[in-house]
Amino acid sequence: MLNVGIVGASGYAGGELLRLLLRHPHVQLRCAFSGTYAGKLLGEAFPGLSRYTELRFADMDEGLLTSCDVVFLAQENGKAMHLAPKLLAAGCRVIDISADFRFRDTETYLQWYGQPHACPEWNREAVYGLPELYRAQIEKARLVGNPGCYPTAAILALAPLLKANLVDPSSILVDAKSGASGAGRSKFGLDYHFSELNENVSAYKIAGTHRHTPEIEAVLADVAGLPQLRISFTPHLIPMTRGILATCYAQLRSPQTTKALQELYIEFYKEAPFVVVFTDRLPSTKGTYGSNDCHIGLAVDDRTNRVTVVSAIDNLVKGAAGQAIQNMNLMCHFEETAGLDSGGLWP
Ligand SMILES: NC(=O)C1=CN([C@@H]2O[C@H](COP(=O)(O)OP(=O)(O)OC[C@H]3O[C@@H](n4cnc5c(N)ncnc54)[C@H](OP(=O)(O)O)[C@@H]3O)[C@@H](O)[C@H]2O)C=CC1
Ligand SMILES: CC(=O)N[C@@H](CCC(=O)OP(=O)(O)O)C(=O)O
């Protein structure tokens, strides 16, 4: 069995890691660190886990952590880059769910996250943990930067079009909606107050100001083989708990049919166990609720020669913890779907 530890285990991403890892066939959960919940049973933070474990949250113990084979870091941005080098030096494999190891370019990290990168040498070695694009690199990685939630949905929706050079990269718009759990458990503020959030939809950080904009741009540029690419990204907060729906638009370089593009997507994702391309309906968030799946649907508008691609994920599973476990499975040469093969809940 693989010994696994989690830092930041009492947050929403940490809670999903616990839920999924406790039933993973090849994993022994060795330690779960949280300052807020130290000494408490996991079930006190996550009542649904009460029956499955007697483990308690603990205060950080680097000795215990470095004895793990794999460590998941699920804290706020800016923490992992200080801890990861010690874990890597001790021989652990590290999967970071924050943004600390998502950018190969540390200037971009400084610009968007407001602090210099603490370990550029390890950052150079890190692999962007989107298995549908970087499976071969992840299989050999010691350090993985797990993608952001919106980037996962947007990149999976757009990558096949850019790889095949079918769209004008400067025409891409991403309009995405997220449930409130995307903001985390420890974030308090007026926007998350029930009476502000309920029966309300609001856009935020529009016009190139959201941190996920450079992440989406960097990966799509890599897929397209371009030095850089610019998108317009509009995130929205909507009154639900989990889920992201990304509606993406792009101008086609030449006329295409919906059927031809559906076939392109099916071919592109033929080795990707968690991506489902719909040909007879469009995705909605509920179909991916609680699962590691990404559902994709698309249509061509002949009048405008634009294609609209819609993708849906659960932000806490494919957008965070599930994807992190998918990465662990690849790094440890387990079956890619191990511990992750439950379908979404409906309704
Ligand atoms: N939520 C999401 O959909 C996604 C999140 N991420 C990233 O994952 C990382 C963790 O995010 P997320 O789990 O959402 O963040 P949370 O705010 O839910 O938790 C982060 C940490 O906050 C601390 N904390 C403070 N107060 C509380 C409290 N009342 N209850 C529980 N924990 C508390 C905990 O650490 P401690 O107790 O040790 O102080 C916890 O691990 C971030 O870097 C985020 O950007 C990435 C993709 C998606
Ligand atoms: C609804 C909501 O507030 N979502 C968050 C998603 C943040 C996140 O998970 O991003 P990182 O992992 O890159 O920090 C936001 O828009 O900031």
TrEMBL record:
One Gene Ontology biological process: L-arginine biosynthetic process
Pfam family, one: Semialdhyde_dh
Pathway: Amino-acid biosynthesis; L-arginine biosynthesis; N(2)-acetyl-L-ornithine from L-glutamate: step 3/4
Any GO MF annotation of the entry: N-acetyl-gamma-glutamyl-phosphate reductase activity
Gene3D superfamilies xrefs: Dihydrodipicolinate Reductase, domain 2 (3.30.360.10), NAD(P)-binding Rossmann-like Domain (3.40.50.720)
EC top class, as a word: oxidoreductase
Function: Catalyzes the NADPH-dependent reduction of N-acetyl-5-glutamyl phosphate to yield N-acetyl-L-glutamate 5-semialdehyde.
HAMAP family in alphabetical order: ArgC_type1
Protein name: N-acetyl-gamma-glutamyl-phosphate reductase
Natural source organism: Chthonomonas calidirosea (strain DSM 23976 / ICMP 18418 / T49)
